[in-house]
Each structure stands twice: as structure tokens, then as C-alpha cells.
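Q: I'm writing up a methods section and want to include an example of the input and output format. Could you take the sequence below and give the corresponding predicted C-alpha cells, formatted cleanly so I can copy it straight into the document?
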Amino acid sequence: MTTNFDLAPPPAALAGGGVAVPIDISTIDAHLTFDAAAQAAHGAASLAFVVGPTAGRPVFDLRQTVTQVVLDGSALPVTAVPLVDLGGGPGAEVRVLDAVLDSGTGHTLAVGYDVGLPASPPGGGYPPHLVWSGPAGARRLQWNVGFTDLAPARYLESWVPANLIWDQYTVTWEVTITGTTVAHTLITNGALTTLGPNHWSVAFPSRSTALSTLIEVRPADELLSQTTHVALPAAGRTITVQAWTTTSSGIDLAAALADLSAWLVEDDSQIGPYLHGDRFVTFLLQGGMEYDGGCTATRGTLRHETFHSWWGRGVKPAGQPDGWIDEAWNTYHDNGGATVDPFNFAEPAQTLCSREPYSRITPGASYSGGARVFAGIAAVSSPPALTALMSGFYSAHLDRLITTLTLEEHLVARIGAGAPDVVDGFHHFIYGFADPSPIPDLWLRDDPGHTGSEQWTGRFWDSPDLWIRHADDGGTVHQAPVAGQDNWFYARIRNRGAGAARHFMVVFNVRQYSGVEFVWPSDYLPGIAAAGGFDLGPGQEVIVRARWPAALVPPAGTHACWLAAVLSRADRPVAGAHVWEHGNLAQKNLTIHRVQPGQTITVPFGYLAGLARRLEVHAPVQVRQWAFSLRPRSPGSQWRSPVIEGSTRPASPGRTMPLAHGQPVPVPGPQAPGSTVAVFAITVPADATPGMSGVIDLVARDERGSVVGGIAVELTVVKPTGQIDERLRQ
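A: Here is the clean output for your methods example:
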């Protein structure tokens, strides 16, 4: 069973002892019966769920009056599901089941309850209604679910026992109205089956969350509807679009459908494929609220709510702290999607994403204040570039709920030179953090002996704080990356400053050739991936990781370099900095080979030609007499050294330049300055003993003799029989 426990709030200690723990629900089956004769309603629901990795008391919510609780067939008192504040504050309480369940175990919870208006805080433009009218025997029901982001506990839990919005599950509603001769209509974005007069079943798929389900019930003679069909180019299918309103609203459904059809095609073309099957439904009357492939709206809010079927209910927030994203981006889009407004850090900090995991409200500032954040990001890229980045983010998260951190990681990795400004923007205007004082000083080790100084004169091209894993397994031993599958970047970040880093990001990049002089930011940005973290105190360290997508892992045999840079507010590398000049930068140029006696291996590497640089080999004593040389990368090429030092003459034109341990030679290459690629070749003697190994460094020095770069090659001699296993590892 696939679960979303990695997105769940953490377990929370209870005041009376014990711990409240998240559960992952797989199915919700609910039956709501509305008795017109009694003008009352009752609900019966069951949840199938599994407990998370921590044993404890399960967390869920229901904002109705509970009359029955049954766990795994055994009745519990109705007091066994009290409302408890786990940190979200007034109105955001959750129900905590008074039963300690083992981690990883599966259970069924059945709940009976009286149905009335939900005991949730008020708010929203179209609040829930449960209204009876008319004479006995011919009573009329007006009922709508009335979800809103702007008040806590106002999603599915208003009517049905459910989880917080990080969880996904199938939902089945059965709705029955008894004791009336008046025919009613149920409007929904779900799969509707009519079971009889005033009796329906509505099914929602497994990607549904507590945000998803639109249900509106009214007398049939009080409703109008029109239907059309729209071909969506990115989704590659034609969907049915249905608009409803009341007979008294005066809304022109034909005009609304024409606008809606155009917007659906535009959104599908510009953002990505529509995810909600073959239907879109809207109920036009008042307010505005989005659902999966549907909305309640007015003519004025319909455009905004339609966009939400991509942003907000297509790609969905993993928690209420992430609900600002779709409202901010939708508002930026409503405003034309072309606004540029540079960040002004003299303005007060703004909190759109609370760090409280049990927060259950989307801040009102998410609309205009959030749109300004996107305008600030557009200022360090461009509106078209930002739109493309957001569409890429959408496409990468079609089946995965999103967090604020995953959005920031996406933007920071891909936006280019503006990445530090994006980190600062999120710090101040999304997380609401003040400028740090005292400031943190984040760093990665360049070498096991590195203690944190910005300037480092030792070996720096094989950072022990960078490594690769084949899986997201938490391992700390470096593994050779495997082509054709996802790999994972890992980095260990340390804080040697006097202040805490409330928020930081690490950008990872891969250069396709081992290099000897990488420069910030041009060699680091845009990156392949990024990973973020929070609250790294003085003297503390933390490991972060990011997925290296299979499509971006180079083919087997590629020799490359891993680069990483850590960014936080008030702590970033200066432009033009090299790894050895700034603690926020790190690289790993370690290439690993298993070689046979008599074999020659070659390692392409990048360098800057036309500069006063010297190369030398540093080899351990056991391999010091092996043959080392430099070669041009292109077959048939000839080059010479452009540098004359003292009485030393340039190398004669040719195809190889021998190297020996500790003996520097001028860098060969073309006369014109610029980036170029050469090959470092190592020949293993034919009589080399299997098991012999060593790490060989090719070191670059400037005209003063200072080390400015290097690459490392680790060789292990194996028996001459069998297949050679040669892999890249950094």
C-alpha cells in the first residue's frame, strides 16, 4: 500500500500522556440520510487505515456530533474521540482516538453521528447550508458542503470523518433523502450513480484528498443546467463541461460555458494535462471555491476557480501551510502573469507558510502578498521564464502532493543566477523570518582536515561532505552512480557561525567532465537539484539529500564532477569564488576504476587554457612509477603549452605529454584563452599485483604555485580474468 507518511505532521505528545500519531486512510465510505419528515440527518461512515511508523493514538477529524464509535468491530464510548489541539490553535483541533495502536498495523474505524451544520469556524464566500423548507410530505432540502481555505476544519471533515489534507484515499458518498415527494438533484464532480428517487452514490478516485469533493443538493425544479464538450490538447481527450445555477440567479449559462470552455483549453495548453477524468462541473451562484475538476463560483470568480483545477486541485498542497502556493500563483495569473516587482527587504517580513504542521488555514495575504512574491521571482528571471518553471513543476508533480519546500527547491535549482535572491525571498516573504542576527556561517568540508575556514590551502577536490547513493536510503558511504535510474545527492551542512540558520538551501550540479577550476555561480547554476532545511543552530550539522533524476544521470563511463553550494539569508558565496576560497562551496572530483594489469584508463577533465597554470601528479609510493600522461581529447589533435616559465621551453607539438610524480609541467592546450578539455591517462604496468590500490591526484597550480584545482582517480588492480567493472564515482 502506498502511503504519504513522509508528508504527515509529526507525532505529537498529549498533555495527559501518550502520543497522537498520523494514520494513512485508504478508503472512506459514508452514508448520509436526510429525513425530511423529521427535518434531521444522520451519518454512518467507515475508514480503512494503517498506522504510521510510530505507535500511538490515531489522529483524524469530524465536525459533527458523534453517536457511535466502533474500532475493528469493538464498540468504544463516544468520548473516545475527543477534539484535541495539537498546535494548530482554536478551531484547528483534531480528533484523537483513545486507543493505542501498533505502528504499521491496519484497522477499520466506524463512526455514527448526527448531521447538522459543521462545528467549524465560519468563513468563505459560500458557506455550508443545511436548510429545510416547505410543508410536511413535500419538504425541500438545500445542502452544500461549503468548503473553504480561509477557516480551519472546513473540508471533508465538516461532514465525513477524514484525514488532514496530506493524505489521499478513495471516497464514496451515499446520499439519501426520505420523507418527501419533491424530486431533488445532486450536483457533483464525482462519478454519480442514481440508485433511486432522491438516492445517489458518488465515488471519488484514490488521488482525492479532503479538498476534493464537491456536492450540492437542491430541489430539481429550482435548478438550471447546460452542457457542452471541450477538446483538451495536452490531455488528449474531450471532456464534458456542465454548468449549473438556480432558476432565480439570472446567470447566463451559455455565456458562462463559452468563457469556461476557452479557459479550460488555455490552461490545458499552457500549464499541462487536465487530471480530472472526462468532466468539469461548476455551480454558479456565489463566492468561489475550487474542487477536483469543479468549482462553485460567480461569473467574476469563475476564471480564478477554473485555474485551480490545475493549481490547487490538480497539483495539490500537502498541508495547509502550503495552501498559499496556488492562491498566490493564481492571483499572479489573474493579474496578467507579467508583473515584475523586485524584492524589497526593507519591508516587514510576511508569513505565508507557517512552520506549525497542524496549522489548518490559508492566510488571507496569500492572494496579493503571495502574488508579489512571484513578481519578485520574475524580477530575477523573467515572467515567461517563471511561467515555464512553474509549468515544469506542475508536470513533475502530477501524482504527488506539493510542499512549499519542494517548490523552492525546484525554483532555486533551475532559475539560474537568481537562486540566492529566491532563497532570500522565501526566507523573508514566505516563511516570515527576520534577517539573522547574529548571522550563521554555513559550510562544507573540502577535506577531512578542513575545520571551516573560508580560505583553504589543502586538498579540496574530494569533499567528504558530498556523496551519492543509489536510493534514498540514508546511507553515508559514497556509491558509484548508476546510469538509467534515479540516484541521490547527499550533503552534510555545518554551521560554524554564532547565529542559527532559520532556513537554507543546497544546490547540486554535475559537470560532465572532471574539472580543476570551478567558479561560482556560472559552474553551479542552474543546477540539477536542490535540497532545503531549517533551524540549523550554531555548532550543529545536518544531512540533506535530493533526487538526481535518471534522465539527467550521465551514461556509464562518463567522468564528471559533483558541485554543491549552500545558500542562506546573509550567507552566500561571492561572485567569482572558487571552492578553496569559500566554505559554502564544495566539489567532488573522485573517479574510481577497477583496472587490470596492462590496462590504460583515461579521465577527461576541463581546464582554462591560455593561463599560467601548471599540472603535476601526486601519487602514493606504491603506484608512483606507473606511466602518467596528458593527451588531447580529440583524435589526431596536436597542441603545445602556451606558457614559457624561465628557461623552460614549450612542449613540442604532439599527442602526449608525459607526467611524473611531483614534477610540474606547463598546462598544454591552444594559445587562445578559454575552457577546453584534455585527457589524463594512467597506464597500469603489466606486472601490477592484484589488490594494489591508490588515489592519484592531478593538481593544478597558478603562477604563484598556489593550488587552484585538482581531480582524484582511485585505482584498484583486479585479476586479469573476468569483466572489467569501471564506474564513475564522485
